[in-house]
Amino acid sequence: MKENTGKSKYVVLGMLARMPQTGYTIKKWIEQEYSHFWQESFGQIYPTLKKLVAEGLAVSSDDTETGNGRGQIVYSITDAGRKELSDWLREEPEIEKLRYEILLKVSFGENTEPEVLLGHLDNFIRRNEKLVKDMNGYIELFDQLKEQDTDCTYSQLTALCGVYIYSAMKDWAVEAKKIISEKGTDL
């Protein structure tokens, strides 16, 4: 289970502020749009939804019109939920914490062969190239939605941040490979 930062409440409220949703659609949306900077598990989302309902910040309804033969619980934000979200948005954000296992492995690199690190860095470069492509795809999608009078400016900004982060990490890995390779020839 992912670390619970206490922010699940606000992530879910923010998602519900966009439109009524099921726990499943919230999870999928987070995976697609926010995966470059935020994760939530089903084990965080469903208890959070229940808690929001208990606190009067959301309401739930059984939606038997989903067409799949089984009712799904659809959640909607309340006025109290909108106020809670608005109050949280006004608070100063916490200091971000960066966690990249690859950085730990490179930091301890003297304990393995350079080829091992170079392989890890090659994989890291490929992953980041794919992530940049994914984020650019989201930006294109948001542009298309704008043409349909759906304003996605703020979602587009988070995807743009992903482009910058993943591009920078890829560039770092290319430089790290160069330094490790040059160090290997100095032996």
UniProtKB/TrEMBL annotation:
A Pfam family annotated for this UniProt entry: Vir_act_alpha_C
SUPFAM superfamilies named in the record: Winged helix' DNA-binding domain
Cross-referenced InterPro entries: Tscrpt_reg_PadR_C, Tscrpt_reg_PadR_N, WH-like_DNA-bd_sf, WH_DNA-bd_sf
Residues in Transcription regulator PadR N-terminal domain copies: 12-86
Domain Transcription regulator PadR C-terminal: 98-179
PANTHER family listed in its UniProt record: NEGATIVE TRANSCRIPTION REGULATOR PADR, TRANSCRIPTIONAL REGULATOR YQJI
Protein name as catalogued: PadR family transcriptional regulator
